[in-house]
Hints:
By secondary structure, this protein is mainly α. Helices cover about 60% and strands about 10% of the residues. It has seven helices and five strands; from the N terminus they run βαβαβαβαβααα. The protein has helices spanning about 10-20, 30-40, 55-65, 75-80, 95-105, 110-125, 130-160; strands at about 1-5, 25, 45, 70, 85-90. The radius of gyration is 22 Å and the shape is elongated.
Amino acid sequence: LLSVGPETEHSRALWARYGGLPRLINHESVSDETRLAALSACDCLVLPSYGEAFGIVYLEAWAASKPVIGARSGAVSDLISDGQDGYLVQAGSAHEIAARIASWIQHPEMAFEMGRRGREKVESRFSVTHITDIVEGVYARILRQRQIRLAPYQERLHEG
């Protein structure tokens, strides 16, 4: 088990209790290169945090075709399609997390398929091209609305 990311009070207590177990590795912070290498090497990403505002790490895991587990809360609930490209679990439910990981161990083809769907989601909804199109669309709507509101005043400016 590899844990990467800033420690919290809760995680420090866990490491104090379980940190000596074999094959348990904790890195508080790593370079982007190391983080992406870890995502490429892992079998799945498990981030059941209830404090994620968006969770770009899920997109990074999907870009590497990995299935994900996230907490059923906030924006993460809107990002992960439960049972399709990963699983949503109750934050803090070790039993539920273990059951989901066990299902992937028992059915690796399901884990592979969820990772594949996640990658498709990233490519279709979160590519640079797609995000650029969305931002350009927002700007175009704002400019159109502004022009509509300014049109009566622009006529007066040209008359004077």
